[in-house]
Specification:
heterodimer, A: 138 residues, Sufe protein. Chain: A, 6 helices, B: 400 residues, alpha/beta, Aspartate Aminotransferase, domain 1, Aspartate Aminotransferase, domain 2, 13 helices, 17% strand, globular
């Protein structure tokens, strides 16, 4: 297999052409849009949270095959996961979920969805904490 | 064109011969340039304009000579050539000088095809002064709507900042005409010549622009050195942006007076090795001839355009080859530019995929980005054949 074919294996391209969980969720608990300013890849994450776990998750966005396939793969992986678990996913774990070895130049594409999810979770938890604090103040 | 002069062209990328088509980003260096820099460090490295020892005299002579060569290259005077870091810094120096000249109600005129470096400095100037930015629009072929010139450039216009050749579309803009109209209204004109000076004869007197900016690294020279040309009388009255050594005539504890042109704009120890490299690059370009380079670039662009047009599902942005520089921006249907670039890279072909530092223009074209192939004097038709073959491969992998 040559380099290009190795990079764009069917398993990756299947996720790109027919992504899982593509779409939007109204009234999402977690919602964050992130993009790579250099290449313009864009991912917006929507998720519902129930009992500290991700009960529903979708993504919208535009971009290269790697960024979009990674979002498809990650959202599949996150369904039903506890937030605490989702928070712990490292960059290495994310890249190892992809069916290809991502070259250094494309790592950012592979990590965009994870970045969006984790930033969205931070905001969600921050907002929850503020609510709790204001409740104790009452 | 002697490809043997360029050591890097001999290297392999992913086991394939390198095909370098990212010349609008930066160009490769001939050994003459590399050797000039080496010679500087090995034989006469010393600080300029200061000491009386032999090395300093040689360094000063070479540094001044580089100014002379740059001046001659664009038909300017020695005093009108300021060495900067790059085109971006050159534009920032001019934008900064307008902070004291602009007031609320004044207008800055740009075009919709500017590089970020010729938008952001003016946005900042507008924010700080209350001046307003207006854009000359482009039509569907990627050319400026010239009928808008007289409407957009008005008595309120203080500065018109425009690219000579678009780094995305390749469009060559009618600078002479823009200068004429701007000058009728009393406005100053800055030309971003980063993509023109390396590729075609440029004569500042003929264009009649007030400022012109370009970078050495896009014309076979080293990184870290660029040029700001300014008309002598304007530079004479303009305040420097940077202050320090070499730019002063006399300093007391209380105040200082400025050195003569062009040194008043070159504060601190300059890029002397870079200047030696730039001088060598200019010599190299002149030995071939800018007319010949323009012709070579045009033939490659025409050949590549015809190749791409004969393929299915390729959309090319920008005007036809005779109206543009050696830049082709395009997209392969249903394939993201980064995926195209990655697959081309796996074949040893270097192109750019993305927004090319022109996000507003991309938005206007309704695309996220494009693939850009840009050619220079060492590129060949055989390389374009390899490029077309690799594109077919990209289509096959991504669309099958």
């Amino acid at each position: 297999m040559d380099l290009a074919e190795d990079m764009y294996r069917e398993e990756l391209l299947d996720h790109y052409r027919r992504p899982q969980n593509h779409g939007k969720i109204g009234n999402a608990d977690i919602n964050y849009r992130d993009f790579n300013p250099v290449c313009g890849d864009e991912i917006e994450i929507f998720a519902k949270v129930k009992n500290d776990a991700i009960s529903e998750i979708k993504f919208a966005g535009k971009g290269c095959a790697i960024s979009q396939a990674a979002a498809s793969i990650l959202t599949e992986h996150l369904k039903g996961k506890k937030l605490a678990e989702a928070k712990k996913i490292s960059n290495e774990e994310m890249l190892s979920m992809l069916p290809i070895k991502v070259s250094n130049l494309r790592i950012k594409c592979g990590l965009l969805a994870l970045k969006a999810v984790q930033k969205g979770m931070l905001i969600y938890e921050g907002a929850k904490q503020t609510k709790q604090i204001s409740r104790t103040d009452d | 064109m002697n490809r043997n002069d360029f050591p890097i062209l001999k290297r392999k990328v992913h086991g394939k011969d390198l095909v370098y088509f990212d010349n609008a980003a930066t160009t490769q260096k001939p050994r003459q340039v590399i050797e000039a820099i080496k010679k500087y460090y090995e034989e006469y490295n010393s600080n300029v304009h200061r000491a009386v020892h032999q090395l300093s005299a040689e360094a000063t002579e070479a540094y001044d000579k580089a100014h002379e060569k740059a001046a001659e290259f664009i038909n300017a005077e020695f005093e009108e050539i300021i060495f900067t870091k790059n085109t971006t810094e050159s534009i920032n120096i001019v934008a900064n000088s307008f902070l004291s000249k602009l007031k609320p109600g004044d207008e800055i005129v740009l075009t919709q095809m500017e590089h970020h470096s010729n938008i952001v400095p003016w946005q900042q100037a507008a924010k700080k002064t209350g001046a307003r930015i207006k854009y000359i629009e482009i039509d569907e072929k990627g050319e400026l709507k010239l009928q808008q010139l007289r409407k957009t450039i008005t008595d309120k216009t203080k500065i018109v900042a425009v690219t000579h050749v678009s780094n995305v579309l390749g469009t060559i803009n009618p600078i002479k005409k823009i200068c004429r109209i701007a000058h009728e209204k009393g406005a100053t004109v800055l030309v971003d010549a980063a993509q023109s000076v390396p590729h075609m004869p440029v004569d500042v007197k003929e264009l009649d622009c007030d400022f012109l900016a370009f970078s050495a690294h896009k014309m076979l020279g080293p990184t870290g050195i660029g040029v700001l040309y300014g008309k002598k009388d304007i530079l004479g009255q303009m305040e420097p942006m940077m202050f320090g050594g070499d730019m002063i005539k006399e300093v007391t504890f209380e105040t200082a007076s400025w050195n003569e042109l062009p040194w008043k704009f070159e504060a601190g120890t300059p890029n002397m090795a870079g200047a030696a490299g730039l001088a060598a690059a200019i010599d190299y370009l002149k030995s071939i001839g800018m007319d010949k380079i323009r012709q070579h670039d045009y033939e490659l662009t025409k050949y590549a355009t015809e190749k791409l047009q004969s393929m299915e599902g390729i959309e090319i942005y920008g005007p036809s080859p005779e109206k543009k520089g050696s830049v082709i921006s395009f997209n392969l249907k249903n394939v993201h530019p980064h995926d195209v670039s990655s697959i081309l890279d796996s074949e040893g072909i270097a192109v750019r995929g993305g927004h090319h530092c022109a996000m507003p223009l991309m938005k206007l074209l309704g695309i996220q980005g494009s693939v850009r192939a840009s050619f220079y004097l060492y590129n060949t038709k055989e390389e374009i054949d390899l490029f077309a073959k690799a594109l077919e491969k990209a289509r096959k992998i991504m669309n099958d």
